[in-house]
Amino acid sequence: MKFKYKIGSALIGLIIVMVFLFFLVDTKEEEVYQAVAKTMPTHYNGEQFAGSQSCIPCHQNIYKTHINTPHFNTSAIAGEETLKGPFNNPSHKVELIDGVVQMVHEGDAYYQTISSKTSGELLDKSRLDIVFGSGVKGQSYLAFKDDFLIQLQASYFTLTDDFINSPGYPNYRFTRSVTDNCIKCHVTFAKNGDFKGNTNIYERESFIYGVDCERCHGPLQKHVDYRTGNLKQMGEDVVIKIDTLARQLKTDICVQCHSGLRAIQIKGNPFSFVIGERLDKYAKNYNFGRPEAQLDVHGNQYGLLKSSECYKNSSTMTCTTCHDPHQNQRGETKHFNSKCIECHVSPKELHEKSNLNLSDLNNCISCHMPLFPSQTMKVQLGNDTQETSVNIRTHLIGVYIDGILQNQKN
Ligand code: HEC
Ligand code: HEC
Ligand code: HEC
Ligand code: HEC
Ligand code: HEC
Ligand code: HEC
Ligand code: HEC
């Protein structure tokens, strides 16, 4: 008895010493990394993320407009402020061959339920953990099932203010495993269980939601430390000045998410690429031959733009020629018009053949970048045989007559 007691107290003593040592080590670490927010993950290249809130003291105006962009809001923890759609309304349901999907709100949580069509028995109830999409066109939902991340059956379709079977889903109960190849364009960062990004197991604390500052500018804790004077050995600022980059490198920032699914990963995983590097060393598309065939919600704005005369005949055009990456500019026709006129300085002369007046010309994009119906985001309403689709703006700039591109007509 006595002997056992001695071992016990020795053990307790040892534990106390170890705990003490642990705190000693831990506080030392605190000193070194004082400016590092503990919750921010580290990028695969070893650089630490700072989070967009840490940019506020010095880039306040950019931050203020950025948080209103579809980019910033393209993913979030699911909740009252981030979810759209008629939850708790039984008339809004998705009918499948083998079940009925309903979306409900209970307390703080939102759920998707699937019940048997014949017996009414509850077959599945999943909590909505993450929402994808700012809601311009729609929203999809992700859920953690144990440790596995999956996409739920239903999505929200903004155009009809209703729930639909998720784009690409079959007409029966289905769950899609969510890997880096799904989340790569909708979050700033997330650490997968496997370095290639092929599993659907994630470190939950590693998620940085939305397309935030550091997805485009790279992880910038060192920049924050440097500018705040926290970095002991002052060297060069690590931040990359975009206007010093070659055109392709500038464009690659946007191309990583706006050039189709880019599903062939050559190096690292989809989150490995950072600004300043060549994207073609990291990932490429399966070659479908026709970029215009990839016009869709998950379309290839880059491929289309690259095939346009404007892009081919200009040495400076990039995505930011027309888009301010820090602003929500949807529907700002005047702004986009003024961009066309910066290069096409006398529109009247260009339209002598069709005899269009200047007053007819004040919406260049309506004729030269027309809208086309999406092939994936569409739904059949009631008994209507016509499908209702989201419209997508083509980036193949050209002369269209009745939706047909003139210079490619055979
Ligand atoms: C303590 C102040 C401070 C903080 C915090 C800070 N920056 Fe900066 N940032 C600066 C200064 C100063 C410059 C240099 C401006 C210049 O040279 O014109 C700069 C430059 C930049 C540039 C390059 C601009 C260019 O000329 O191309 C980017 C991009 C940038 N910051 C992004 C960020 C992001 C993203 C964050 C948050 C993660 C952040 N900064 C946090 C002060 C700060
Ligand atoms: C990490 C992926 C990612 C990067 C990088 C990215 N985008 Fe996006 N972009 C998205 C996603 C996702 C959406 C859809 C947002 C939503 O509505 O949920 C989007 C939407 C847009 C929209 C439509 C906004 C609207 O009004 O609906 C424009 C324009 C756009 N991006 C331009 C750019 C430009 C320009 C760049 C480069 C400077 C860029 N994007 C970089 C993922 C990205
Ligand atoms: C290669 C990049 C990429 C991948 C991969 C991707 N998306 Fe997207 N997604 C986008 C872009 C870009 C847009 C906006 C396109 C536009 O406005 O034309 C978008 C739009 C959406 C929208 C509509 C957003 C809105 O606010 O209207 C939803 C919902 C969505 N994606 C869900 C998903 C889901 C779920 C997956 C994974 C299965 C996925 N996306 C994979 C790039 C991507
Ligand atoms: C979608 C990608 C994207 C996101 C998100 C983004 N930026 Fe930028 N940022 C760019 C690009 C591209 C440029 C270069 C602009 C140009 O070429 O006109 C730029 C330029 C800048 C500059 C220098 C030029 C200027 O306007 O002062 C700063 C500073 C900056 N960004 C900070 C930020 C901060 C802070 C955030 C988040 C609050 C942020 N950016 C979010 C893409 C992005
Ligand atoms: C950076 C300069 C630049 C910008 C901005 C620009 N373009 Fe162009 N665009 C060109 C050049 C260069 C050509 C080649 C023919 C020429 O020299 O006029 C061209 C060609 C065209 C053509 C003829 C296409 C064909 O297939 O023959 C149309 C139509 C056009 N642009 C419309 C637009 C519209 C609409 C906008 C605004 C959304 C726009 N452009 C913005 C530079 C530009
Ligand atoms: C010549 C001008 C111009 C250039 C260059 C340009 N865009 Fe756009 N983009 C537009 C216009 C105009 C719209 C429609 C805006 C609206 O409807 O409010 C648009 C819309 C978009 C949308 C939303 C599409 C939709 O239908 O909802 C995305 C995404 C986008 N652009 C991405 C890009 C990317 C990525 C690049 C570079 C590869 C790029 N754009 C280059 C003019 C341009
Ligand atoms: C109502 C539709 C419409 C609008 C709006 C419109 N265009 Fe056009 N555009 C055309 C047509 C059709 C042509 C073919 C030439 C013609 O018929 O005169 C054309 C031709 C052009 C061309 C020359 C193409 C070539 O063959 O070289 C350019 C560049 C161009 N437009 C730019 C613009 C710009 C910039 C604006 C806005 C200020 C604009 N367009 C507004 C219909 C339009």
From TrEMBL:
Q: Where is the Cytochrome c-552/4 domain?
A: 179-218
Is Transport given among the entry's keywords?
Answer: no
Q: What residues form the membrane-spanning segments?
A: 7-25
Q: Which UniProt keywords apply?
A: Membrane, Signal, Transmembrane, Transmembrane helix
Entry's InterPro entries?
Cyt_c-552/4 (IPR023155), Multihaem_cyt_sf (IPR036280), Multiheme_Cytochr_ET (IPR051829)
Which superkingdom is the protein from?
Bacteria
* Designated name of the protein: Cytochrome c-552/4 domain-containing protein
